[in-house]
């Protein structure tokens, strides 16, 4: 598994900050993309993935979620630990 991509709305987003903190605490690598600065990224998460809530975490084309999801972070952390 490579680095995740975390689509965020910026530092004012509490759930985005918490998601990053949880990923960091588990040692999960990620690339951060601010969708307010990258319209193509905003279109991807809203139009292609269908999400309307940030953050959006993409593991791969078939594995992604939105919002603060400690359960999903734990699931992904298990794969990085293996």
UniProtKB/TrEMBL annotation:
Protein name as it appears in the record: Glutaredoxin family protein
BP term (GO), one: cell redox homeostasis
GO MF annotation, one: electron transfer activity
Organism from which the protein derives: Leucobacter triazinivorans
One Pfam family recorded for the sequence: Glutaredoxin
Residue ranges constituting the Glutaredoxin domain according to the UniProt record: 5-62
SUPFAM superfamilies named among the record's database cross-references: Thioredoxin-like
InterPro entries per record: Glutaredoxin, Grx-like_ET, Thioredoxin-like_sf
Superkingdom, taxonomy of origin: Bacteria
Matching PANTHER family: GLUTAREDOXIN (PTHR34386), GLUTAREDOXIN-LIKE PROTEIN NRDH (PTHR34386:SF1)
């Amino acid at each position: 598994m490579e680095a995740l991509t975390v689509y965020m709305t910026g530092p004012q987003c509490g759930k985005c900050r918490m998601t990053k903190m949880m990923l960091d605490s588990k040692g999960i690598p990620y690339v951060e993309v601010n969708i307010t600065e990258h319209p193509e990224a905003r279109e991807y998460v809203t139009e292609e993935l269908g999400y309307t809530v940030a953050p959006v975490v993409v593991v791969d084309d078939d594995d992604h979620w939105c919002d603060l999801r400690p359960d999903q972070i734990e699931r992904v952390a298990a794969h990085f630990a293996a």
